Amino acid sequence: MTNEEDNVNELFSQFKNKHVNVDLRGNYQSEGKIIAVDNYLNLVLETENGLETIKGGNIILISLKE
Question: Sm domain location, by residue (predicted)?
């Protein structure tokens, strides 16, 4: 792994345990707390309906909830 890849890991890992809104392809949205994230931006969210996995390729935008 190169230093640049290590930096990406650190940036993504900053979002763990944060509440977010996620805009997805096909005009779908999801919101919850990020439990896990990987280098491909695949997410595991804790939502009010349980755990939800989101493939990184379907994500358009992630925004932090205040």
Answer: 10-64
Q: Which residue has the tokens 């992630």?
A: 62
Residue 3 and residue 11 in contact, taking contact as beta carbons nearer than 8 Å: no
In angstroms, the CA 21 to CA 49 distance is 15
**What residues make up the domain containing 52?**
10-64
Q: What is the pTM of this model?
A: 0.81
Residue 58 in contact with residue 24, Cβ under 8 Å? yes
Domain CATH code at residue 55: 2.30.30.100
pLDDT digits (tens, 9 = 90+) for 12-39: 888 899 999 999 999 999 999 999 998 8
